[in-house]
Design goal:
Chain lengths: 266, 411
């Protein structure tokens, strides 16, 4: 069957690639006054301004560490509860299911204020562990939903088969479940990192300024009229999920039955 | 198989839950009872955490590159700047107070107006401390109403004046020959140049200030507004002309007034791109930076109109649960010093006006202040001082927000 890919490339280029390129160009040029008939002026001011912030590197690192921890906990919680919801029947399953989704229906900020009180008492306020925990609130419900769906696709019969053949739980998990869940892990990675990375208010409240992540530096700059600085910040911001995605992709290659990029496809 | 570890984790966290700290920070009254030399001596070698809005690179650099090394050298105080929005800071303090957390992480906050009112009403501040600051007593007009009230709220010495700003309009001198000098002339100009003017909506800080100027203009004397407590009936009557004015210009605003910029940032972008010919804002010198970095055209100039230009003071304060109040006092005192204020006034970093009294400065210092070149886009000091108008009570701000929506948007 011959497919025409042209419309796809056209739409993707127009809606996704062109705006990104524009952002890149803008970060390297002075704000453009096209109404006055001026041309583009290339400059590096926006980038040097960005790197002059003494907190930039540590904030970037903290964002990565927190993002990675949030991702790990999401995969763990998502996998276990997703599997339970999909494959086991128990009383009150629908109630548990809707309870697990509840956090995305309540505004995160409201949850954060209540949890802040709790975290102060427990001693987790103003620590990065507290920030990781609060980032679970807006991310875990999605992960559970994604893994729930994935396990439903895999289905119980496949699990029963491996159990009958005598595979241990670990072996079954490594050789059957994980390889089949690869696409879900990808989605969860992207979703989790992007959500965690863009949390300003809850990070500020729980982290209390002791934990400075990228949005803490970045968000106040939304008030600047200098579009070029904003563009440089945005590009820097976008690199993080990309890096994390590549790392996770590399890790997924280690799974059994992965198609190695250096192998010839037949 | 047991797969629900989450509740277990949460439950175990609950068990660790310790009782809240009892010891707490020492009270500000005990500290201010000491001699100033003792306070300075005790702050040596300590860390002071300054929480402030971080959205301006010039301000950030003033703190990081100028103030921080100076404080370190002169007093051995290590200043750390933490970027956070003032609303979030107050939210954090409020929850900490509920939880009885007496050992906070914040030593100094930067605030004014409504935020100060919130902080004061909820007992989030340490208390009165301004009287013990040597620099405040020596170089400032201590009984100036601009320092003793903040948007109509009594300061009671709970915050120290750090800077002051005044509202000005900016225009592109290539497109506008003679800037208007009154609201009547502005209207004339708008009608002649449709689509070239707009103002941020009333919920924006700056848009609201623009409207307050217009409200001041409706009265015989602006003091009828700013020295009068808010009285809805009276204001409604005075404001009649204001809504007429706004409705008359609406059709000739940018996009025929169908859409108002949501924030000053939006208006600044429109101005920077050449869509409109005027913008406005607090801080009479703010255009300099924007011209320098190329956001605003080089031909940007500023002007003020009758009846005058509203200005306000912004302050530094100490939260109730600061653990290093001595360090905070030392740092605030230094931030009010002539050297720190002079550096703040220069265009190198921030370029912001100072609340210091020039008459009280030693001669050599006063000359330094008078020598500072603030830039071509900044009006001269005398013109600014002559047009200065104080802020009205905070209630007016809210009233304008509501009424503007009813009178302008819904019509």
């Amino acid at each position: 069957m011959k497919r025409n890919h042209l419309p796809f490339y056209f739409i993707a280029g127009l809606l996704f690639i062109a705006p990104t390129l524009l952002l890149l160009v803008q970060s390297f040029t002075a704000p453009w006054r096209f109404q006055r008939g001026e041309g583009l002026q290339f400059q590096l001011n926006s980038w040097s301004l960005l790197f002059s912030d003494p907190n930039l590197w540590s904030a970037t690192l903290w964002s990565l560490v927190i993002g990675a921890m949030v991702l790990l906990m999401n995969v763990f919680i998502g996998l276990t509860s997703g599997k339970a919801l999909a494959l086991y029947s128990f009383q009150g399953r629908t109630i548990v299911e809707s309870l697990l989704l509840a956090p995305i229906l309540i505004p995160v900020l409201a949850v954060a204020m209540g949890l802040h009180l709790f975290m102060i008492r427990v001693g987790l306020a103003d620590t990065w562990v507290g920030v990781v925990l609060i980032h679970l609130v807006p991310t875990v419900p999605y992960s559970i939903k994604i893994f729930h769906h994935a396990y439903s696709e895999v289905g119980r019969p496949l699990m029963e088969q491996s159990q009958m053949l005598g595979a241990s739980v670990i072996k079954q998990f490594l050789t059957i479940e994980l390889p089949l869940l690869r696409t879900s892990i990808r989605s969860v990675t992207f979703l989790t990192i992007v959500i965690s990375l863009s949390q300003y208010a809850i990070t500020a409240i729980i982290g209390g300024g002791q934990v400075i992540t990228l949005p803490m530096i970045f968000f106040p700059f939304l008030d600047t009229a200098n579009a070029s600085v904003m563009a440089a910040f945005s590009v820097w911001f976008a690199i993080l999920p990309l890096v994390m995605y590549i790392v996770v992709e590399g890790l997924l290659q280690l799974l059994p039955y992965s198609r190695k990029p250096w192998r010839i496809q037949t | 198989m047991k797969t629900f570890y989450f509740p277990i984790i949460l439950a175990s966290l609950l068990i660790i839950s310790a009782c809240s700290q009892e010891e707490g920070a020492s009270s500000i009254d005990d500290i201010t009872a000491q001699s100033w030399a003792d306070i300075e001596a005790e702050s040596e070698g300590t860390e002071v955490r300054l929480y402030m809005w971080g959205g301006d690179e010039g301000i950030n650099q003033y703190i990081d590159e100028w103030l921080q090394p100076q404080l370190e050298d002169e007093y051995g105080v290590e200043l750390e700047r933490i970027p956070m929005e003032t609303e979030e800071i107050l939210q954090k303090l409020q929850t900490e107070q509920q939880a009885g957390k007496q050992e906070g992480t914040i030593d100094i906050i930067w605030l004014n107006g409504e935020n100060f009112k919130t902080a004061k009403d909820n007992d989030l501040l340490a208390g009165s401390f301004v009287d013990v600051l040597p620099n405040f007593n020596e170089y400032y007009q201590t009984d100036d109403p601009a320092f003793s009230t903040d948007f109509g709220t009594d300061v009671n010495g709970m915050e120290a004046p750090w800077g002051k700003v005044q509202f000005v309009f900016h225009y592109d001198s290539e497109k506008v020959e003679q800037p208007p000098s009154s609201f009547a002339e502005l209207k004339q100009w708008i009608l002649e140049n449709p689509g070239e003017f707009t103002y941020p909506n009333a919920e924006d800080f700056t848009g609201n200030a623009f409207l307050r100027h217009l409200l001041y203009e409706q009265t015989e004397q602006p003091s009828d507004i700013y020295s009068e407590p808010f009285e809805a009936d009276e204001v409604n009557e005075k404001a009649e002309g204001m809504w007429t004015y706004l409705n008359e210009i609406e059709h000739d605003l940018w996009r025929s007034g169908d859409h108002y910029p949501n924030s000053l940032t939006e208006l600044d972008r429109l101005y920077g791109e050449g869509e409109v010919s005027m913008t406005m804002g607090y801080n009479e010198a703010r255009a300099e930076k924007l011209i320098d970095e190329g956001t605003f055209p080089d031909s940007t100039k500023s002007f003020v109109m009758e009846p005058g230009s509203i200005g306000n003071t912004h302050f530094l304060s100490i939260p109730f649960n600061s653990t290093n109040k001595e360090g905070a006092l030392t740092a605030i005192n230094y931030m009010l010093s002539p050297e720190a204020q002079l550096s703040k006034l220069k265009q190198d970093y921030w370029g912001e006006n100072t609340p210091i009294s020039y008459e009280k400065l030693p001669d050599s210092m006063r000359e330094e202040f008078e020598k500072v070149e603030r830039g071509d886009s900044v009006l001269d000091q005398q013109e600014l001082e002559e047009s200065f108008l104080p802020e009205s009570e905070a209630d007016y701000v809210e009233w304008i927000e509501d009424q503007w929506f009813d009178e302008i948007v819904q019509k």
